[in-house]
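Ticket #4471: structure export looks truncated?
Reporter: QA, pipeline team
Priority: medium

Steps to reproduce: submit the single chain below to the structure queue and open the exported record.
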Amino acid sequence: MTDIKQNEFQLVLQGEKHDIDAKILAETIQNFDTIVREINQELKPEFPISLRVKTFEEGSFEVLFALLADPTVNSSLFSALTKDNLNIAGTIISTFADLLSIKEFLAGRKPKSIENTSDNQTKIENSKGDIKIVNHKSGDLILNNPVINVTINNTFNTLKKETEIKGLEFVSDLNTSKIEIPKDKFDELITTDLLNTYSQTTEIQQKRTMPKIDVPLSIFKIVFDEKYKWQFLDNQGQKISATIKDKDFFERVRKRELYFTNGDVLIADLEIEQEYNEIAKAYENKSYTIVDIKDVRHQPTQLRIDA
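Actual output as written to the record:
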């Protein structure tokens, strides 16, 4: 078993073989990435993280994941491995483990009762009358976030297709006991009773605006007219076009108080317009608006560009 650090967790697909169908592995990793990003967006959107796959071990098929962040952001998760930074990664991983644990506890059925306590906990009673106490945020995510719920369903639906897989383990440094789900329980986690609760009581929001704080944007194309979009590379390496609504920024440009060129990095607050994709069961980014530019970080060699 690989030594697991606080910013890591391990997925073990139990069985006799130590290989797996590439498509099933790819879909599973994509689903885990979706869940991690959704948790990240709900808990700490100002700390954008990415899910990285590390090493593989023989035996039951083991995949080691690590949560890392863009080193160009001063407040980034692992620009320094401080206690506070590790705690953020640990919170995301612990929440992920909670979601699987609650899903298993409910066994695909709607909860009999839900009670939020005064100490920021959620008391869940399942259809059998058993009680589980969880962190309030974890309870809210599994009961009210259709993207996470559908993605977990899709994960187990994918894994059950692989005949050699006998079960799933989720192991992390923070778990006092590993989560172990045998294959004969997969169908319980896939059943749609809990998901039907959303369609009956909560309409999935087709469009939403997600704020992101202190995002590093590397300048790719500069446009000085406020009506047109600039182009950037974001902290995931994706090219985006964004409208800048920060009027103070353009006023400083006009006064020649700011200078920059391609490759400089803007530290900015973003608003991302998203639409729900029914096929992918996830939100897609459709447009970007920069509402506030906090800082401009220059390249070592600088040419001044006048507006």
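Status: closed, not a bug. The export was complete when the record was re-opened. Leaving a note from the reviewer for reference: Helices lie at 22-43, 83-106, 136-144, 146-159, 186-190, 193-201, 247-254.
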